[in-house]
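Check my protein:
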Amino acid sequence: MEKILFAAAEALPFVKVGGLGDVMGSLPAALNARGADVRVVLPLYAQIPQQLREKLTFVTSIGIPVGWRVSHCGIFKGELGGVTYYLLDNEQYFKRPAVYGEFDDGERFAFFSRAVLEMLPYIDFKPDILHVNDWQTALVPVYYSVFYANNDWYRGIKSVLT
């Protein structure tokens, strides 16, 4: 069974701005129905409805290297429609009035991309494939090559960007 982790900036039913939200809201469940183990990781935005937040359980908090400092990251987990979701919390970056279009979007999503990789040993799921979507997660394969590829725990993970 292939184990795939989708990293995306949006996914229904949590948050949707455009077509990516639609695809990430339906493709993982369709692949799971075909026998894969597909999970999704997203930022924990302020826009996520409270009734969905209440379905999440806290996993742990970790520190994420961002340039010269370490930033907080809370990891939450929930299951909806047969898909496991991980939501990464950092209020400095994601408790904002908009999902996109903030002055520091580059830094926000660089944090998220690094957090996707840093969270893996804490979620009891080692993917065979990291499937990253759009510019917001495009740094995941770069960070993997630079910081994680030679670490025994991470070795062998493949990535694809769409």
The chain has a mean pLDDT of 96.
